[in-house]
Each structure stands twice: as C-alpha cells, then as structure tokens.
Write a structure and sequence with these properties.
Nuclear Transport Factor 2, Chain: A, 6 helices
Length: 146
Amino acid sequence: MNSKRINIRKTALPILLGGLVAVLIWSSHPLADDKDADIRNAILSQIEAFANNDSEQAWAYASDGIKRRFGSSEVFLAMVREAYPAVHSATAIEFAERVPHGMFEIQTVRLQGPEGRRWDAYYNMVLTDGVWKIAGVRLQPADMGI
C-alpha cells in the first residue's frame, strides 16, 4: 500500500511541476485584453475630457500628427465640438470590434450623440512610446438594422 502512495506522488509531482511552470509562463505574458483595455481607456478618457471641456486633457490623448495639424488644445477642442458633436457630447458609448492594421489599430465605437442619433466611430489608434494615442476618428451614421 505504501508503494502505491509513492507511485502516485511520483506521478503527481511532474504534473504539479508542469502546471506550476505553465502558470508562471502564462503570467509572464501580457494578456491580450491589456491592449483592449488600454485603447478603450484612452478613448473613454478623451471623451470624458471633451464632456468636461478640458482641452488639455483631451489633447493628451491626441497623436503627434493631430497635434501638428491643429497646433493647440483650444483649436482642437473647438474643432471637435463643431465637427464631431457625437464624440464631444456622447450620451452612450459601446465598444465593438477592434481590428489590427500593422502599425495601428482601428477601434469601432458605437456612440449616441446629444440629439439621440446613433453613430459608428472608427478610431485610428497608434502606439507612441508605449501609450495608445488617437490619430483620427471617422464617423458615420449607425446602421439601425431591421
């Protein structure tokens, strides 16, 4: 009977060690959800800054290309307020698919604007020095379905 216990322990030890190694390897790799969370947080943080009319905070999430194009946080905020009211004053936000495109990612976001109209926003996200920045947004009316 003792030999049976020893055999079970000898068999269980490699399994336990293998499981421990698998857990250590898995925990050392970043989760795929980290990228999703980082991209979503950047978009949500910028939308929140727009809602608070905080031009500097909204500007912080803009890519270098956007910053060169608009020159200042005030000009940028004024443009978003005028041209993208659904982004500036969103009343509902839902994240949809994210599509990798090599050097950038496209994150689809469904928005409801202040007038109640629904939009699909396609966020062009770029990774700059380890931080996700917004390089542009294309809006189109959402498909209302059946």
